[in-house]
């Protein structure tokens, strides 16, 4: 039994699809949207001459468009992650990209494999949709991780601004100018909304719910309570910053402790597949005596099911909430 290189081709096409969508994203929206430039995207848009209200409306539309599109069939599985990643593509554009990438994958599979038409069609759709979901999910994870890391420093910057006499709205603006993306653009939108009359506490609460981050909810609640009851906001935020830093350190510690179990689950699930490929490469006739047995395929499916279940069980065991 000769090993097929089709799975390797599928993987290479999948990687190509992910690289293609990343390149398209950077081409359409510029390098500042990649979250690794010192000048945040909002300031770059303002420097290009766009009016403040136009920039605010454009960013607000990007931040809310995906949750407003949950009703689109099949898009609900992507909407939450796209919202947290603040993907600038519209939902319609993402759907068209999925279709286009599925077509590209189909052409690639047709040129490089001899599988049946139905299999090529199904794999192409899986690569197109799965590639977009993988890309959006990685963007969301990166963005949320960066916000979690930036938030304590941003709050401490607000504390210092309040202690030297700046009002809270000015402290928000300072954060929007001094810190990097993604938090800078988020706070920049809050500063703009506050300048046009929106309550800062309400804007912070909206951001916390949109990003779905507990630390941001703490910040929104602290600001809202101070607005209603009074008190020293600088001291409140200083205490909140310490709490967030402590939670962040605890989260990192838990992540480090559970990393071994997570990778063990991945290794134990991947090892039989890697071993199967290695055996076929070293001895292509190894399974010839049993491949025609009626229980061979059902047994393979059962093993595959157990390997998949192992991933989910290990993930549940190490999914510790902090």
TrEMBL record:
It is found in: Cell membrane. The chain crosses the membrane at residues 12-33, 94-111, 117-136, 263-282, 294-313. GO terms for cellular component: plasma membrane. This is Pilus assembly protein TadB. Pfam families: T2SSF, TadB_TadC_N. Keywords: Cell membrane, Membrane, Transmembrane, Transmembrane helix. Residues 155-263 form the Type II secretion system protein GspF domain. The keyword Acetylation does not apply. Residues 1-143 form the Type II secretion system protein TadB-like N-terminal domain.
């Amino acid at each position: 039994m000769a090993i097929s290189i089709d799975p390797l081709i599928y993987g290479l096409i999948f990687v190509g699809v992910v690289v293609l969508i990343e390149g398209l994203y950077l081409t359409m929206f510029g390098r500042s949207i990649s979250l690794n430039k010192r000048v945040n995207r909002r300031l770059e848009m303002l420097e290009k001459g766009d009016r403040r209200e136009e920039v605010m409306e454009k960013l607000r539309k990007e931040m809310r468009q995906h949750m407003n599109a949950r009703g689109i069939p099949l898009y609900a599985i992507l909407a939450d992650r796209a919202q947290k990643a603040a993907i600038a593509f519209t939902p319609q554009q993402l759907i068209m990209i999925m279709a286009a990438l599925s077509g590209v994958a189909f052409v690639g599979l047709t040129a490089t494999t001899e599988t049946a038409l139905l299999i090529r069609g199904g794999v192409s759709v899986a690569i197109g949709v799965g590639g977009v979901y993988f890309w959006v999910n990685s963007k969301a994870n990166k963005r949320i991780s960066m916000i979690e890391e930036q938030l304590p420093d941003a709050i401490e910057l607000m504390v210092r601004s309040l202690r030297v006499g700046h009002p809270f709205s000015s402290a928000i603006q300072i954060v929007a100018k001094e810190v990097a993306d993604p938090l800078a653009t988020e706070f920049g939108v809050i500063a703009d909304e506050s300048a046009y009359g929106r309550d800062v506490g309400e804007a912070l609460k909206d951001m916390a719910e949109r990003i779905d981050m507990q630390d941001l909810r703490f910040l929104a609640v602290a600001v809202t309570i101070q607005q209603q009851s009074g008190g020293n906001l600088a001291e409140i935020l200083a205490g909140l910053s310490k709490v967030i830093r402590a939670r962040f350190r605890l989260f990192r510690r838990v992540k480090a402790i559970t990393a071994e179990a997570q990778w063990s689950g991945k290794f134990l699930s991947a090892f039989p597949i890697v071993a199967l490929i290695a055996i076929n490469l070293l001895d292509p006739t190894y399974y010839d005596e049993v491949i025609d047995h009626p229980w061979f395929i059902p047994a393979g499916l059962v093993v595959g099911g157990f390997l998949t279940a192992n991933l989910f069980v290990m993930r549940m065991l190490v999914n510790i909430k902090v």
